[in-house]
Amino acid sequence: MLCTGGVAWTDGGQGCPRRDRPAPARAPVWDRDALRDPHGQPDKALRVEAMFDALAPTYELVNTLGSLGRDAAWRRRAVAAAGAAAGEVVLDICCGTGDMLRALAAATPALLVGVDFAEQMLARANFAGARVPVHVVRADALRLPVADDVVDAVTCAFGVRNFADGPRGLAEMYRVLRPRGRVVILEFAQPEHPLWRVLYRLYVGRLLPLLAAVVSRERIRAYHYLARSIRTFEPARNLALRLETAGFREVTWRTMNFGGVVLYRGVKPPADAG
Ligand SMILES: C[S@@+](CC[C@H](N)C(=O)[O-])C[C@H]1O[C@@H](n2cnc3c(N)ncnc32)[C@H](O)[C@@H]1O
Description:
Bound molecules: S-adenosylmethionine
Strand order of the largest sheet: 5-4-3-6-7-9-8
Distance between the termini: 31 Å
Largest sheet: 7 strands, mixed
Shape: globular
Number of strands: 9
Low-confidence stretches: none
Helix content: 25-40%
Strand content: 15-25%
CATH topology: Rossmann fold
């Protein structure tokens, strides 16, 4: 077992540089059928990986335009919730092009490591000028190549909804965290207030796909997937319960953006906790 970025990797820090399944010639389209039940698709992981590979060149631009720049503030709150100190190790799961890692690097002196399975997203992760070293590894969040109990904080921004197996993803976060380690998750949700919910659905379901079509010219209906996957994802209180079921304690969640974004936090209990 080698160490890279302060993390004890179970595979020498190589993650999954080689695809364990063939790369699709074209990203599968989220057609009407698949969008009916995006979380139930048997090939969800393959679709998600291919979708983000295809979106990578314009991913950050659409995010910034689509959220009117608010996404930076959500990530700053997540960084504060992670509360990482000097010498600690933070693992950012589903790091994508590195937005969350850059926010962490700007605010914490911790050692930073990111994992993501989409090669093209990782290829655009640039940490020039970061005050701390940042490492990224291509790996599946459902099979992290990281030893048990070695990470001080896990962050995951807008990744959990994309997991093919949500409970397994949370169990992996729990496994790699040391006792008293923190998990911090950002995820979209549907606002509970009926008015905000209608406006939100209009915005995410109609306007955002239009914006993305203009900016990214994607033809795989990725932003229709975004809207449907939020609409059919579990409510915030369920995800909070899932964190507790995974073993986390002191679980809290608070909404931002009129309920459209939720910040979850939990703590892995000490080893001797009953
Ligand atoms: C919406 S993007 C979020 C990227 C980044 N965290 C941010 O805040 O901009 C979701 C990312 O999760 C990654 N992802 C989804 N499921 C994954 C999995 N099982 N293992 C690794 N990465 C995954 C995708 O490749 C994509 O880069």
